[in-house]
Amino acid sequence: MNLITRGFHGRRGGDPDRIPPGQYQTHDFPVLTVGPTPRVDTDTWTLTITTETGTRHTWTWRQLLDLPQENPHTDIHCVTRWTKLDTDWTGVSLDTLLHDVETTADYALAHSHGGYTTNLPLQDLTDGQAWIAHTFDGRPLTPEHGGPARLLVPHLYFWKSAKWISGLTLHHEDEPGFWEQAGYHDYGDPWREQRYRGD
């Protein structure tokens, strides 16, 4: 089975200063998923950050909601070439979650319910760049869009914003995730069109 698609096509349109090369603006929110959509009950949902030494930090759904909440307003860019401008989210900054986590790791591997993984440099999850998002456009995030919670890393292609997030493991070495092993770019900067390995 070919897991890589060169994407949908449409007119670029919109604000060229906000739409990366090779992208077009959509006003919809396309749903792209490989495999069945997990249905995760918030009564049993947890988020675990595991350090390179094996130390685990875990939050329940209630504990996540009790943390300081932020409301990022941002553009998002999918590797299949759509860009959605001015999206509104609510969630917890990774800065908040990592505040008391002692680590010297350089990389994180995000894990999702359903087995999906994706890798990111840890520096791309800090300094106000990433969130665990549970609300989109004022409503709870639907399962089709990664609810009850997903990783939100809007400065990278959207496959890095792992749906149905269940945890992060921190590593000294980079460890490719699901799509990266299938041929997608290891980093995924939309402004440099880092879609596929070798871009």
UniProtKB/TrEMBL annotation:
Oxidoreductase molybdopterin-binding domain boundaries: 35-179
Positions of region (Disordered): 1-22
Protein name: Molybdopterin-dependent oxidoreductase
Species of origin: Nocardiopsis changdeensis
